[in-house]
Amino acid sequence: MIDLHTHTLNSDGELIPAELWRRAQVKGYRYLGITDHVDASNFEEVFRRVRTAAASLNRGEPPVIIPGLEFTHIPPGQIGELVRRARGLGVPLIVVHGETLVEPVAPGTNRAALEADETARAMLRDHEAAWNLGRRESLAEADAKAEALATTLQRMEAMRLSPVRQGEIADAR
């Protein structure tokens, strides 16, 4: 089982990363994406924290933490630039808080998110449908995507360009 959209105390979650990891471990998760809510003011700091937690906890036992971000309430015209900056920092998992009927997310956010990242596409978080990868049978392909992402992270680590090494920002990506 996987969940690529979770939050910690770094945004609106209730748990520190280690406790979130442990609870996911007990439930049998193989991959856990930590994607705390961020905007232009805090995404670099939050990613450093999540990456440090991943480096501490990714020691061979599942679940593998995939450090990421959820860009939230970003003006659509700024999404592409923030995604590029985040990719430049080595952020492997990006979620964008999308438009719904119940939240005042700016019109055009969904399209901007889909156009923001040509290689991996910023994942669009649909809060109205309330889906999490790994929790719906219709998202069976999510497991293969998580496997591919984990393989990429392992290759990066082997090349010593890991975004999670020693809590420092990777020099290159």
TrEMBL record:
GO molecular function: phosphoric ester hydrolase activity; zinc ion binding
Domain (Polymerase/histidinol phosphatase N-terminal) ranges: 2-75
Stored SUPFAM superfamilies: PHP domain-like
Single GO cellular component term: cytosol
Source taxon at top rank: Bacteria
Classification via InterPro entries: PHP_dom, PHP_phosphatase, Pol/His_phosphatase_N, Pol/histidinol_Pase-like
One Pfam family named in its UniProt record: PHP
NCBIfam families (UniProt xref): PRK06361.1
Name of the molecule in the record: Histidinol phosphate phosphatase domain-containing protein
